[in-house]
Design a protein that fits this description.
258 residues, mainly alpha, Ferritin, two-stranded antiparallel ribbon, 2 strands, globular
């Protein structure tokens, strides 16, 4: 067995010391009473608060859609976008911002009519999950093309949010209104796709000369419900850009009424 001379504690010393500690513990236990000492209690603790379960109701889905509309309006209307947006795309992006702000206002009476408070602020959970990251990457990269990429991703996310909410909405009238709002988001996504990949070749999915998938105005028969991916921001050392995954609202990002 080799022993490190710089360390005076050998394996044998460690075992011998451990045995001494164990023996002293036996002696202390024998000297103690039959009952152990209780920890001194200072003050009285209140009963734990049980958080109520959030119900995923129609009005919760409406408020959540409002928060996503507000989030997209905030991102596309913020300086991170307006400072780098291409001149030919600026009117389109401005129209998108106005549309989202209008939808926030249009949903408000639907929410109040059902006894809840409307939401006019961006969804805090989604901003933390990926909204703030998008703003930071746009600010750092300063790439005009990233504006269209971001707009396409956000409008696809908005359409997917309404599409998913339709499956959970009970009231038929609300399903019809959500369908109309979702259709508008899908049309905006198609407009951005045409700005990125114009012409008839950009209608359906395809590939470029390098075999990479191209942006399509009509990517599929049905909108995707999986995470929306965009690549934006400055390039790293190997020339890759940051991939941002944007999920539709889930249980931890719904705007519950508690």
């Amino acid at each position: 067995m080799t022993t490190d001379k710089k360390n005076p504690v050998s394996r044998r010393t460690l075992l011998r010391s451990g045995g001494a500690v164990l023996a002293s513990g036996v002696v202390l236990a024998a000297c103690g009473g039959a009952k152990g000492n209780t920890v001194t209690r200072i003050g009285e603790g209140g009963e734990p608060t049980v958080l109520p379960d959030g119900e995923v109701s129609d009005v919760v889905l409406l408020r959540t859609a409002q928060s996503v509309e507000a989030m997209i309006a905030s991102i596309l209307g913020g300086t991170a976008v307006t400072s780098i947006v291409p001149a030919d795309a600026a009117p389109v992006i401005a129209a998108f911002v106005s549309a989202h702000e209008r939808h926030v206002a249009e949903i408000a009476p639907l929410v109040t009519a059902r006894g809840a408070a409307p939401v006019d602020e961006p969804n805090a959970q989604l901003m933390t999950a990926y909204g703030n990251t998008i703003v930071e990457l746009l600010t750092e990269g300063k790439e005009p093309a990233d504006v269209l990429t971001t707009a396409l991703g956000l409008e696809t996310l908005m359409a997917a949010t309404y599409q998913y909410s339709l499956s959970l909405t009970v009231e038929p009238a609300l399903r019809a209104q959500m369908m109309q709002l979702g259709a508008q988001a899908s049309r905006r996504a198609a407009v951005v796709a045409q700005l990125i990949n114009p012409g008839t070749s950009g209608f359906a999915p395809g590939v470029d000369a390098d075999g990479a998938a191209t942006v399509a105005a009509l990517p599929a028969a049905f909108g995707p419900l999986n995470a929306v991916q965009i690549q934006i921001g400055p390039k790293n050392d190997v020339g890759a850009r940051t991939t941002v995954l944007m999920d539709t609202p889930s249980l931890n990002s719904l705007m519950y009424i508690l």
